[in-house]
Design goal:
The longest helix is centred in the last third of the chain and has 18 residues. The chain has two domains: 190 residues, Rossmann fold (3-Layer(aba) Sandwich), CATH 3.40.50; 177 residues, Rossmann fold. The chain is an alpha/beta fold and 380 residues long. Helix 9 packs across helix 12. It has a seven-stranded parallel beta sheet with strand order 3-2-1-4-5-6-7, sandwiched between helices. The chain is 37% helix and 15% strand.
Length: 380
């Protein structure tokens, strides 16, 4: 009989954590049935990446309790009663913490299934400092989790030192990708509207168009680098107009392409010559692993584990978050030297192949989930 898994997501728009969750769902195949709740109603863009044969449902209003609302015992009791019908509950980020609280209050009375909480980073409202109320809430409620799973060393330290979780309850599992899919030529028509002119150097990124990604910074530094090439930003989100406005202001609107969300990075990331990450906050970005697997050099802000993720030779192109001139200079040096791009791309690919394979990631999650349920082999 398939394992019944309830996923409590802060949002199910396709980003790093959603892409990983979908990849695990696809890997478990017919061994599991899934129910997905999103704290942001209608934010379900990641569902398109789920394989057609996977048993998954997305209950609407009235079919399942909302993850949004004022904290309180009655609301948490409704969540707990719903959770009781599953074999395993997986919660993701702050937006799903009410599910963790429901288990904290009612696990004993309702014989609730094990819950594993996943943390992948912070939104713009906690970039410089975590909100004290959220810190205290996490400290109190995460005791209900069988494990707190994080992808980065930085989040591992935060979970232990700030959220006061014992080391035995915190498990770090590095993100990974299907490395072999990033070898070879990209699909010619994978990026709508993309055409490479002779001599073009293409700077690219994949990101949700959200404030925390600070993509106007990327536009400004691309313009300041003096590039005569192209800038391609793959993704969707509320910052699209701000990105376009920055491109107009910097005089590079004719060299910027915003093709929207594209589901399969392996099909198109090879069109880039340089991968650029301009975020104010990251932890262990999957998009950067995809770029490294495709053999790209990286220019990035020094956030999360980014500096230690890239090859040692690439680390001088990881610059302080607030130093736009350093970012523009790093980008300009890579644009100017094909040999440097090739050399850094080669060592980055070697690092990706040695550390960030998808098989190891899937095996680690499968073992964790099966152990939590005391059902070895249940997920294939």
């Amino acid at each position: 009989m398939p394992v019944r898994i309830l996923h409590l997501h802060s949002t199910f728009s396709l980003g790093g954590k959603e892409a990983r969750a979908v990849r695990l769902m696809n890997a478990f195949g017919s061994a599991a049935d899934h129910v997905v709740l999103s704290a942001v109603p209608g934010a379900l863009g990641a569902r398109a990446a789920i394989d057609p044969g996977i048993a998954v449902s997305f209950p609407g209003d009235g079919e399942a309790p909302s993850l949004i609302g004022r904290p309180g015992p009655l609301r948490y009791a409704r969540l707990a009663r719903y959770m009781a019908g599953f074999d395993l509950v997986l919660s993701y980020n702050w937006g799903a913490m009410d599910g963790v609280a429901a288990r904290r209050l009612y696990a004993g009375a309702m014989r609730l299934p094990p819950l594993i909480h996943h943390e992948d980073g912070f939104n713009a409202d906690e970039l410089t400092r975590q909100k004290p109320a959220r810190v205290h809430f996490r400290r109190a409620m995460l005791a209900a989790a069988y494990r707190v799973v994080v992808p980065s060393e930085r989040l591992e330290r935060i979970a232990q030192r700030i959220w006061k979780q014992p080391a035995r309850r915190v498990q770090r599992i590095a993100n990974g990708v299907a490395l072999d899919r990033y070898v070879g030529l990209p699909d010619a028509d994978a990026i709508p509207g993309f055409r490479r002119a002779p001599g073009d150097v293409v700077v690219g990124t994949m990101a949700g168009l959200r404030g925390v990604k600070n993509l106007p910074r990327l536009v400004r530094t691309f313009a300041a680098s003096g590039s005569a090439g192209r800038l391609v930003i793959v993704g969707e989100g509320p910052e699209r107009e701000a990105i376009l406005a920055a491109a107009q202001a910097e005089g590079v609107a004719d060299r910027l392409l915003l093709p929207g969300f594209l589901a399969d990075a392996a099909r198109y990331v090879g069109h880039f010559d340089i991968f650029a990450l301009s975020s104010d906050s990251e932890q262990f970005p999957i998009a950067m692993i995809e770029a490294m697997a495709a053999g790209l050099p990286v220019v990035a802000t020094d956030v999360g584990d980014v500096r230690t993720m890239v090859a040692a030779e690439n680390r001088r192109f990881v610059v302080p978050v607030d130093d736009e001139p350093a970012f523009a200079d790093a980008l300009g040096r890579l644009i100017a030297s094909r040999d440097l791009r090739h050399r850094l791309g080669t060592v980055n690919r070697a690092v990706a192949r040695g550390r960030y394979g998808e098989d190891a990631m899937i095996a680690a999650y499968r073992a964790l989930y099966e152990t939590a349920m005391h059902r070895p082999g249940a997920l294939g």
